[in-house]
Design a protein that fits this description.
Cytochrome Bc1 Complex, Chain D, domain 2
Length: 102
C-alpha cells in the first residue's frame, strides 16, 4: 500500500496535476495532496472534518502538526508524499483542514 501511494503521488506530480505551490490555496492543496487519505481517514489519518479525530492533534500544538506533515508520521510520507509543497503550502493546507474542525 505504501508503495502504491508513493507511486500515485509521483505520477500525479509528474503529470503536472499538482498546482504550483505559490499559487495554491488551502482547499486546492488539500484536494490535490491530502484528500486521498484524509478524505476517508485512510491509513490512520484523521478524517477531514472529524472534530474528535483532530482534537488530540490540535492539543499537541500547531508546531507539532506542521512537523508531522513536513517529516511524515506513521504511514504518511513527508509532505503527504508531495515534495513540491513548501512549508507555507503545508501551513496553508493545515489552516484549511483545521478551519473545518474548530
Amino acid at each position: 500500500m505504501k508503495h502504491t501511494l508513493m507511486l500515485f503521488t509521483i505520477l500525479v506530480a509528474a503529470s503536472g496535476a499538482v498546482p504550483s505551490a505559490a499559487a495554491a490555496d488551502g482547499k486546492t492543496i488539500y484536494d490535490t495532496s491530502c484528500a486521498g487519505c484524509h478524505g476517508r481517514g485512510l491509513l490512520g489519518s484523521p478524517k477531514f472534518g472529524d472534530k474528535n479525530a483532530w482534537a488530540p492533534r490540535i492539543q499537541n500544538g500547531r508546531a507539532a502538526l506542521e512537523e508531522s506533515v513536513m517529516k511524515g508520521k506513521g504511514k504518511m510520507l513527508p509532505k503527504g508524499g508531495n515534495d513540491t509543497l513548501s512549508a507555507e503550502d503545508v501551513r496553508t493546507a493545515i489552516d484549511y483542514m483545521l478551519s473545518k474542525v474548530q
